[in-house]
Write a structure and sequence with these properties.
3 helices, mainly alpha
Length: 69
């Protein structure tokens, strides 16, 4: 399965716009799977918190795993 990712602006209509440059990459016929991801309120805060957690040093308990490689 191939994936083509893009962002678009949703409007009051029930039409999802696909950029022309990407539409040409789609097969002319056949089935496709469409997944729509939307920004959630507080999503930016969650991402920032996750990033900060990722950058933190390991705790003393987890630091032992550094010796294994």
């Amino acid at each position: 399965m191939n994936a083509i990712e893009f962002t678009t602006e949703l409007t009051d209509s029930s039409v999802l716009n696909i950029p022309i440059s990407l539409a040409s990459q789609l097969p002319k016929t056949g089935k496709v799977r469409v997944i729509v991801l939307t920004d959630e309120a507080g999503d930016a805060e969650w991402q920032l918190g996750s990033y900060e957690q990722f950058l933190r040093d390991d705790s003393e308990e987890d630091a032992i795993y550094e010796l294994l490689h």
